[in-house]
Amino acid sequence: KSTTAINLAAGFASQGRKVLLIDVDPQANVTSVFIHPEIEAELDKSLYQVLLNFAPLTPLIRATNTPNLEFVPSHIRLSSADLELAQAMDNRAARLKKAIDQIKQQYDYIVIDNPPSLGLLTINSFTASDRLIVPVSTAYFALTGLVQLRETINMVRETDLNPELEILGVLCTFTERTNVSRDVQDQLRQYFPGQVFETTIPRSVALEEAHSRHVPVFEHAPTSKGARAYLALVKEITTR
Question: Which of 18, 60, 65, 209 has CA 20 to 30 A from 143's CA?
Fold first, then answer.
C-alpha cells in the first residue's frame, strides 16, 4: 500500500505533473521514506493537527528530493485520531476534504496513503477522494476484508459524504509465478469485474531497497522490474 502510494506519486511527478503525497497512516511508512526516522520523531506538526484542530495543510507541506513531488507527513499521534474523531460532534468524516479543498488547485494529482483499516481516518480519505486504488497482495489471506471494504465505500456514497466516489482500479501486488498468486488474481477479477489493472506489481528486492535508501524506486533502480511496473501503472491510470 505505502510502496504503491510512494511510487505512484513519484511516477506522476516524473511525467512532469505536480504531485502532493499525503500520509494518513499512523505507521508513517511514507513519511519514513522521505524523512529520516530520527527527524520524524521530532516532528511537531503533522496531519494530526489538521484532523483534530482544523489546522490548514499548507504549513505542513514539505519538499522532497524528487522534482515536482511534495508531501504531508504523518505521525504516531494519528494512532489515537480514530478514537478522538469518533467523539467529535461536528464534521468528523470530512475534515481532510475541507483541508484538501483549500489547496487542491495547486496540484495535478494528490495521492493519499491510508491506514490498513477502515476507521474514521480512512473514511476521511474516502470522503476527500475522487477515485480509489485498491492494492491487494496476491497471497492466500489477501481477499479477507474486501467485502467490508466494498461496504464502507457504499456507506460513504449512500450517506452523501461522497456520492461520486468510485474504484479506479484494483492493483495486484507481490505477484509471483505460483498457483496461489494466479488463483488470487483470478478471484479478484471475478469479484471486481473490469476493475483489475492489467499492470501487476511483482515481488521485487529493488522496491525494498529503495525504501531503506529513502527514495522512490525510480531513483534507486530505474531499470528494475518494480520501476518498470510502476511506470506502466502510471500510464494505465492516466488512460483510465
Answer: 209
